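The methods section describes the discrete structure representation at length, but only in general terms. Since the whole study asks how a given chain folds, the encoding of that fold should be made plain. An entry of this sort, consisting of the sequence and the corresponding backbone structure tokens, reads as follows:

. . .
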Amino acid sequence: MTQGKHSGSLGDVYAASTATEIAEIYDRWSDTYDDYMEQSGYRHPAICVALLARHVPAGALPVLDAGAGTGLIGGLMNSIGYQHIDGLDISTGMLERAREKGVYRELHVADLTRPLDLPDGSYRAIISSGVFTTGHVGSEGLHNLLGLCQTGGHIVMTVKAPVWNDDVKHAVAKLESNGTVRLLEQTDPYVSIAGEAGMVPGLAIVLERL
């Protein structure tokens, strides 16, 4: 299954071929991103936070929002008691909007496809919404995040169905076989943006770092 055709900034993002292009598109989109997602019925953040709450107590800290964007996830986490939330994103423009929400301890500009300049084992939990998708991030990003997760910690992430089937699913299976992670939960496929025609389904998973 291939990604559907989309117009506007969403179409531009899926059509981008380099990390620099992706960052520039999100920079331009940052001022209207929240309104678009609210009007379009964006589901990933609420599903991710619900899964996080199922496996990680609100008092657990710190938490990393990997691909924080404008801070939609951080705002939801903070509203139900998660504190000491850090965020990272490839777009400085998106992170400026996230900073304005006042819920993040630290914000970092970073590309998840490259090694991350943060200490190993820094986070009790990592949440990543809408990042492992067409043209963005694949299994290399999962390996980079694993290094930041504490033993016994959890990673909650969404994955576009083709990226899952062609790449991430196989990486998770290999990590399970060598005792690095345990797959605790996997949702059925769902459409992440209900109001966007032609959206290819994705799913969400929960991993425990062993």
Helices lie at 8-15, 19-29, 33-40, 44-55, 72-79, 92-100, 139-148, 161-177.
